[in-house]
Design brief:
The two termini are 21 Å apart. The chain has a 6-stranded antiparallel β-sheet with strand order 1-6-2-3-4-5. The longest helix has 42 residues. It is α+β, with helices and mostly antiparallel strands. 54% of the residues lie in helices and 20% in strands.
C-alpha cells in the first residue's frame, strides 16, 4: 500500500466519496468506491460535511468537523484530514496528508498527489476541516489482528525510513571501529611517521569524524520523525 493513497474521482460531485476512500485506505479500512458512494448518497451537489462524518463513522472512524483559521493548521492539526476548498466557483474536498516547510502535501481526487504552496492553499481554504479523532476496529476483525500483523503493517508503511536508519547505523558502527584503530595507531605507531604524514592521516580522520557526526544527526532526526508519526498513529 502507498504511504499516501490516491484515487481519482470519476465525476465532479464524487470528490467527497474519494476522499473517504483515501482515508479508508490510509487506515487499512478500504472498500470499493461503489459501496462508499452508496453510503454517501451523493447528489448533484456531492455530499455535505455532516454526511462525510456519518459515512466515516460507519467505517469505524470517529471524525469531527471544525472551523479552523489557516494559521492554526500548523499548530493543532494531526494529518491526514479532509479539507474543504473553494476553487473558482466550485467547492471541493481534498485530503491533507502532510504539512511541509514550504508546501502542503495534498491528495486531490481531481489531480492526484500534489504540492500546494501556502499562498494558493490559503486562498482556496474555506476554513472547514474534518479530523479523524479515533480509528476503531470492527469486532469481527479484532481477534484476527495479531501482533505480527501489527508489526508487518507498520514495517510496510515505514520501511524506507527504517532501512535508511539501519544503513546509517551500520556506517556509524564501522566508522567507530575505524576510529578505535586510529587511536591505537596514534599511541603505538605514530612515532614511525613523518610530521606531514601524521597531519594528513589526522586530517582524513577529522573529515571522517565530521561525516560520522552528520550521519548521527540525520539518524536522530529520522528517529524523532518516525516516533512522531507512530505516536500520531497509535493515538
Amino acid at each position: 500500500m502507498l504511504k499516501y493513497p490516491i484515487f481519482l474521482q470519476d465525476n465532479e460531485n464524487s470528490c467527497g466519496a474519494y476522499c473517504i476512500k483515501m482515508l479508508l485506505s490510509f487506515y487499512k479500512r478500504d472498500d470499493e468506491i461503489k459501496n462508499i458512494k452508496k453510503r454517501c448518497r451523493l447528489t448533484k451537489e456531492g455530499i455535505t460535511v455532516y454526511g462525510l462524518i456519518q459515512v466515516l463513522k460507519e467505517y469505524h472512524l470517529e471524525a469531527k468537523a471544525y472551523q479552523c483559521e489557516f494559521k492554526h493548521l500548523f499548530e493543532e492539526v494531526n494529518c491526514p484530514i479532509i479539507i474543504h476548498l473553494k476553487q473558482d466557483d466550485l467547492y471541493h474536498y481534498v485530503v491533507l496528508y502532510k504539512i511541509k516547510d514550504e508546501y502542503f502535501l495534498v491528495g486531490d481526487p481531481a489531480k492526484g498527489l500534489i504540492k500546494m504552496s501556502y499562498e494558493i492553499f490559503s486562498k482556496q481554504f474555506t476554513g472547514v476541516i474534518i479530523m479523524v479523532n479515533h480509528v476503531g476496529m470492527p469486532l469481527t476483525k479484532r481477534n484476527n489482528y495479531t501482533f505480527q500483523n501489527f508489526l508487518k503493517d507498520h514495517f510496510k508503511q515505514h520501511y524506507q525510513t527504517i532501512i535508511k536508519m539501519v544503513i546509517k547505523t551500520i556506517i556509524i558502527s564501522l566508522l567507530t571501529m575505524l576510529f578505535s584503530y586510529y587511536y591505537q595507531l596514534l599511541i603505538d605507531s605514530f612515532s614511525k611517521y613523518q610530521i606531514y604524514q601524521i597531519i594528513l592521516i589526522s586530517l582524513c580522520f577529522t573529515i571522517l569524524y565530521a561525516f560520522k557526526l552528520l550521519l548521527d544527526y540525520l539518524r536522530r532526526q529520522q528517529i524523532l520523525e518516525l516516533s512522531k508519526e507512530l505516536n500520531q498513529e497509535y493515538a
